[in-house]
Amino acid sequence: MWNSIAGLWQDRAGRFERLKAAALVMAVFPALLLGVRAVIGGLGSRPITEATLNTGDWVIRFFLLSLAVTPGRALLDAPKLVPLRRIFGVAAACYAVLHVLIYAYDQKWNLGTIVTEILQRFYLTIGFVAVLGLVVLAITSTDGWQRTLRHRWKQLHRLIWPIGVLALLHYFLQSKINVAGAVFDTGLFLFLLIWRQTPRRWQTSIPAMVPLILLVWIGTALVEFAWYALGTKLDPWRVLRANLDILYTVRPAEEILIAGAAMLLVVLVRRWWKQRLARA
Ligand code: HEM
What angle do CA 126, 139, 149 make, to 5 degrees? Predict the structure, then answer.
């Protein structure tokens, strides 16, 4: 028992692993902060809604972080990042369960109402399927399950992509008019998805990342366009045009461009630093 707990911040040889410990602190901190805010009455006039939204945001953040570990490891040539995938994935599942528990609390723990609502409201149905999926992946993320399931483990864990689609759709559907956060997170998801599909030798190439980022920028703008065209009565062309007018307002697709440029900068600095160290 102690060994598996200590394994959260130790490497396989039992040495203290700073990166794992930092990821663990990062995973626990939002829940602690939420708890403190709840106790001191710092959640505003609608504390339960605020707690639902807050935990929902953290599910998506940790989910995307866990998917970003593999590209991060490849682009930064940092194998030490690998164990963080499990920590972030399990954190996403835990925040998802907390998110549902807060929802159940809001429904006064009335199981009948909760089940009926989940079955009748599409955005809750897909959210619930996504939570179940995340929990299954978190439980089977251990080395033991990996050995037990062998090649089927990879197949099972590929479900992370459809789970991501359901989770993001839930985010869109509950966002109503302002979908900026959901569009931005979809852009990040698109980047991670397309990166996986690119040939291996391009996955670490900076010149190959530039068209990839541009593609994701266009994809993100089109997702936003499609949402406004299909899901609202607002003029989708105005929203699409706004993507070309950076002085007007920064659209989520443009934020994706900025995030992509920042990522390239980090990769360049890291490579320059590694080369300097190698020469020294
Ligand atoms: C992996 C699955 C899920 C993810 C990733 C997720 C994520 C989110 C996100 C990001 C938000 C909006 C946060 C914001 O606008 O800042 C949200 C809102 C919400 N979620 Fe989920 N959720 C999931 C599953 C569920 C489930 C299963 C339920 C209930 C059975 C649920 C109930 C709600 C409710 C009621 C809101 C809206 C709160 C309000 O506006 O009052 N979610 N969720």
Answer: 105
Q: Is residue 73 part of a domain?
A: yes
Count the Cβ atoms, other than its own, within 10 Å of residue 91.
26
Question: Which tens digits make up the pLDDT trace of 70-85?
Answer: 999 999 999 999 999 9
Number of domains comprising the chain: 2
The domain in which residue 70 lies consists of 8-167
Pocket probe mutation, ligand 1, options 110, 172, 174, 175, max atoms within 8 Å of Cβ: 174
Q: Is 6 or 147 the better-scoring residue by pLDDT?
A: 147
Binning pLDDT at 50, 70 and 90, where does residue 280 land? Answer: confident
- Which residues 6+ apart lie within 8 Å of 249 measured at CB? 242
Outline where the chain has alpha helix (H).
2-6, 18-39, 47-76, 84-106, 111-120, 122-139, 143-149, 151-157, 160-175, 180-197, 200-203, 206-231, 236-242, 252-279
Q: Which atom of ligand 1 is nearest to the CA of 175?
A: 15
Which residue ranges have their beta carbon within 6 Å of ligand 1?
Answer: 49, 52-53, 56-57, 59-60, 96, 99-100, 103, 118, 124, 127-128, 130-131, 134, 167, 170-171, 174-175, 181
Residue 185 included in any domain? yes
99 and 206 part of one domain: no
